[in-house]
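SAM-dependent methyltransferase structure dump, as promised
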Amino acid sequence: MDKNKDIFGKAITAFYYDNDETDIIVHSPDFDDDVIPVKYLFREYDEMPVLEQEALDLCSGKVLDVGCGAGGHSLYLQKTRSIACHAIDTSPGAIEVARKRGVKNAECVDFFNLKDDAYDTILMLMNGSGIIGKLNNLDAFFKHARSILTENGKIILDSSDLVFLFEGEEIDQEMYYGELEYLVSYKNSKSDVFDWLYIDEKTLEKFAKKNDFSFRLIRKGKHFDYLAVLEPLKSS
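structure tokens r here:
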């Protein structure tokens, strides 16, 4: 997510080795700065929101943990459920810490560069749709996901409907309102600008059906977020 600057890796390694709780700051041209407490990236199952817990409970078979960060989801699935996980992230620092914490198969690789493997579950949490970047990338996302899923595999993904941010305002119809630009900073380091996609459930369902995936809404959260399961439909 933070390109070559590895902002998340710096924060995660500083917390892991030195207990440095300096926050990660999220910047957007459209909204006020937000904060990601680095300690939150090390939360245990009991500290996770219900929506996140339910996502982990739905995992089965061989799991691809996309954007694993410090590896908390994979660690829980390994230790508590004895599930084999392939944890991936584009942050070298995060992967180093995930391995140190005990994730057995952690790799620094981009989701879209994966090939020659098959997963029963693709797990995409903490606004898992974000890495898709733009709405017009969704077809390519579904095509790639299908290529690395087993016949009975599934995607478990969460996202949010940002329409609430525009209450009383006219929404620009030329650009989807869930397409945002961010950059993140930590101490004196700042990432490049990157695209991040929030997608409402109706739009995600529409694209899923277009790409021959089923859509199942599992739960809605308290903050316009939701959890969904997407499964490739079998050819008739």
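The mean pLDDT is 94.
lmk if u need the other ones
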